[in-house]
Each structure stands twice: as structure tokens, then as C-alpha cells.
Amino acid sequence: MFIRELANADALPALEATVRFAGARQKILAHNIANADTPDFVQKDVAPADFQRLLSSAVDRRRDRWGGHRGDLEWTQTRAIRADDHGGFRLEPVEPRRGLMFHDRNNRDVERLMQDMVENVGQHRVATELLRSRYAILGTAIAGRV
Fold first, then answer.
1. pTM above the 0.70 mark?
2. Are residues 99 and 43 in contact, defined by beta-carbon separation less than 8 angstroms?
3. In this structure, is residue 6 part of a structural domain?
């Protein structure tokens, strides 16, 4: 129980969710790039702004329910982000409303895909570094060192 409370303390659940979101979205973006020249391929994505809104509301609900900065995150759902049975979420990418339709009925926009990948990698990196530093602080506290 004590370890569970430590794992659900402060920013840890939000950072873990951000890392999971960015990792899952990276697979979606890589799939889009790999199929950029495939006729009839329709790119799909999950909007980071939607995830950020859901994460913010989950953090607010956790604060309201638990009266502080501890407890599980409770997810609501959108078309592309679904709550799962284990207290987390899963991505179900949808067709973005941007991009041009080419003569082969592919809605590719390689420049936008590359920009999305760079932004996603940045989000993953920042969340990973923050998560790593939080775990280092926990490790130091558990070891009893100052």
C-alpha cells in the first residue's frame, strides 16, 4: 500500500500518462509516414490538445476526490482517447481534419507529419526527464540519504 501511494503521488501519474501517450502517438505518426505514398491510405492521429485537456480534468478530479496530490487518475473519454479497465487509457486514432487529398486519394502532408513527430519527441523527452528526476528523488528519500 505504501509503494502504491508513492507511485500515485504528486506528478508521477500525470508524467507516466504523458510518456505513454507520446509513445503510443509516435507509433501512429511513424505508421503515417511509412504509408505516405500508399494509395488510398488515410492518415490518422490523436490530437495532443485533447489529451492535455483530459489529463488536466483527470488531475482536477483527483484533487477534488482525494483532497490533495495523491490518488489514481480517472479518465473520461473522447472519440480518440478511451478509458481502459485498468485505470489508464488507450488511443483510437481518427482522421485529422487537415491535409490535402491527392489524386491517389491519400491525404498526406509530410511536412506536417515531420513537425508532429518532432513535437511529440520533445513532449516525450521532457516528460521522461521529469519522471526520471522524480524517481531519483524518491530513490534518495527511500535510501535515507540527503
1. yes
2. yes
3. yes
